[in-house]
Amino acid sequence: MRLIQGTSVSPGLALAPVYVVRASPAEVPTWSVPGDEVEREIERLERALVEARDELSARQKVVATQAGEKDAEIFGVHRMILSDPGALTQVKRTIREERINSEAAVQALIRRMEQMLGKLEGNSVRNHAADLSDPWRYVLDALMRVERETLAAGGSQVILAAAELTPAVMTSLPRERLLGVITETGGRFSHGAVLARSLGVPCVVGLPQLLGRLEQGLLVAVDGERGSVQLRPGDDDVRDFEQRRSRLEARRGVFAKVAAEPARSADGHRFGVQVNIESLHDFDTFDRTHTDGIGLLRTEFLYLERPQFPSEDEQFRLYRRVMERMEGQVVTLRTLDIGGDKRLPYFKTPAEPNPALGWRGIRITLQWQDLMRVQLRAALRAGAGKPLRILLPMISSIEEVLQTRKIFDSARESLVEQGHDVEREVPVGMMVEVPSVVFTLPDMLKHVDFLSVGTNDLVQYLLAADRDNPWVARLYEPQHPAVVRALASVARDANAAGKPVSVCGDIADDPAIVLMLLGMGYDSVSVAPHFVAEIKHALRRTTRDEARALAHTLLECTDCDSVRRVLTAARERLHAD
Ligand code: PEP
Ligand code: MG
């Protein structure tokens, strides 16, 4: 079968040779090796063994000149261990019998040795014995280096194929070389998918046994509009594909015409279209004047790209740069939202049985209050004379808001005492992403200045379906009546309290959903820059009354199918114009 149906997580069309990445750079990959390729796999192992021995000789020489022959002897011993045919025979047998790749077979050998040696009596015996498995790590390293370097080498543009859609896969190639991404698993609202949309890379997930059907360099057509992938398209298919691509580009050209206009409905109602920013790279992808500011600055990237927590001054400089880049437009800075699958390498949190329900977002920064204080000080200093707003993630109770407000006020006071220039009024808002908040909103609204609905999380918590777990991807359904009703209820409460309300979760990149939100009483949405023009185009074609009627119809739906049908019809109406 050459056409495989999956799920689109980022739109667009791409046609290019495929590059198969077997795992994220830090993991030891495992894949099946077809029978007729086993001997080639064994040659690959033997080449890696030679490289590992060369590496050990090089190290031996360096240490001998720097520290003396005696200290360098260990590398000679390691080389000898690698020359022992016994272990090599075991690895080859694993490859032949289990038909798996060399990396996995070497990893299995290391594990076996460690288990066996760990049982021995006495520390010194155990330590000495550990030397036996160590040299094999050089072989593993050589095998994985080849994989990484082949990917990095050459300047060609490719479609990446991987088992799982992770942030590491999305960033394993420079953007200009990445035409599309296809994976076996991955949720539409996982962090890998958020990145794909932010980078504007067509991406299709949920393609069973994909890697088994691919070989390096195979021509692949990725259809991020229909959520399918075609392997080895023929000449006619390629011609069709190119025609569709030109039509899509023409449509994008139409959207681009309204990109510079303010976002308004057909009856002239102003509706904010802001952008979500994941990294500094995002600033190169959009024109500031086409947006109504930043609705979500995910500050995690600043922490993820460092070897340790960034200092107050480092954060200040970066936030100031962002504010200056936006030239007077609002910047909504979300405080650190780590935990769950967003982990900092230098901040070890305990392994949790259920990370999505665990220690994350505000729960961490209220416990480690220094983190919160440093970030708020940096933000307040950077916001002097600028329209800064602070947004709090993962709020589940009024106490968390009050506690954060206290830290915020004391950070502000101490900055004033120290002679810093800070704004008198900085709006503090909260994300609505935990269901408890939906039911207590009228009380919570007394303590915050604005709301932003994080549907990526709200959907997973409302439906009890982990956004990153492929096994429940089918149950993670934003087009669910409970989601529609929760969204309407949030807008009603915010409107009644006279507080601005927005959606910054990724469902807002769907123009039909934006029309529903307009109809429910939302003031704005915040989306990846790539979607701004199409959303403005949809708004300009729809009156507020039409949007209200759409919201009303959706609120009457009692099952997911009817919600999907109504939204599909709304999308088709937009496409027909
Ligand atoms: C959300 O949950 O919808 C959201 C915008 O936050 P994140 O995707 O960063 O969790
Ligand atoms: Mg969230």
Describe the structure.
This protein is of the alpha/beta class. It folds into three domains: 121 residues, Phosphohistidine domain (Glucose Oxidase, domain 1), CATH 3.50.30; 119 residues, Enzyme I, Chain A, domain 2 (Orthogonal Bundle), CATH 1.10.274.10; 317 residues, Phosphoenolpyruvate-binding domains (TIM Barrel, Alpha-Beta Barrel), CATH 3.20.20.60. Helices cover 50% and strands 14% of the residues. The chain has 21 helices and 16 strands. Helix 18 crosses helix 19. The longest helix has 30 residues. The model has no long low-confidence stretch (mean pLDDT 89). Bound molecules: phosphoenolpyruvate and magnesium ion. Phosphoenolpyruvate binds next to strand 10 and helix 16.
Task: Please provide a brief summary of the model.
This protein has helices at residues 38-67, 69-83, 85-98, 102-118, 123-152, 167-170, 191-199, 235-259, 300-304, 312-325, 362-367, 369-382, 398-417, 435-439, 441-444, 455-463, 481-497, 511-520, 532-540, 544-556, 560-576; strands at residues 3-5, 7-10, 13-20, 158-164, 178-185, 203-205, 219-223, 228-231, 272-277, 294-298, 331-334, 388-392, 428-432, 450-453, 501-503, 524-527. The protein is of the alpha/beta class.
Write the layout of secondary structure elements.
Elements: E1 3-5, E2 7-10, E3 13-20, H1 38-67, H2 69-83, H3 85-98, H4 102-118, H5 123-152, E4 158-164, H6 167-170, E5 178-185, H7 191-199, E6 203-205, E7 219-223, E8 228-231, H8 235-259, E9 272-277, E10 294-298, H9 300-304, H10 312-325, E11 331-334, H11 362-367, H12 369-382, E12 388-392, H13 398-417, E13 428-432, H14 435-439, H15 441-444, E14 450-453, H16 455-463, H17 481-497, E15 501-503, H18 511-520, E16 524-527, H19 532-540, H20 544-556, H21 560-576
Parallel strand pairs: 3-4, 4-5, 5-6, 9-10, 9-16, 10-11, 11-12, 12-13, 13-14, 14-15, 15-16
Antiparallel strand pairs: 1-8, 2-6, 3-7, 7-8
The chain binds phosphoenolpyruvate and magnesium ion (MG).
Phosphoenolpyruvate binds at residues 194, 296, 298, 337, 433, 454-457, 504-505.
